[in-house]
Sequence to fold (177 residues):
Amino acid sequence: MLNKSEKLIIVGKSGSGKNYLLDLLEKEGLLPSIKVTTRPKRQSEIDGVTYYFKPLDEFEFLLESQKFIVNQEFYNDKNELWRYGILKEDFNKSQIFIMTPGEIEQMDMETRKKCFIVYLDIDKKVREDRLLKREDNNDSIIRRIEADEIDFLGFNNYDMRITDPLFETDTILSLMS
Fold:
């Protein structure tokens, strides 16, 4: 495990490379967080590795028990409710996280000061091409792209912005404390 005092939060629109960056940073020795979600599992995902997949009632119990540091809800193109959250326990032990602008806004100032936020601001066409190759049938690509435009409108709560779709981890790690 790399000795970094800051927690690294990756934020970006759908298809920007968030999971790719998380995987690269994990190979560098940072410990990733595993989110809890109610959405259906994609073919390549593994419960307890990619996400903790939970039924909605179990997620709601965790929420009511105040077990999450942040949480978010989405409606897919079929108007199905999907919930996501990061457990407080997981936040305390992990070093790398994928979050949305809405989740970042839920953090208190003291928690935010201990984080280094990297915004993957990748071109829309590149992201669309990546999403098409993913063959993810759980949600509409068009809905995701449109929702991202709204979610990221005016987003500026980050420490580093990356626009190059062929980014590397060296610069990110050198800027973290």
Remarks:
- The first helix runs from residue 18 to 27.
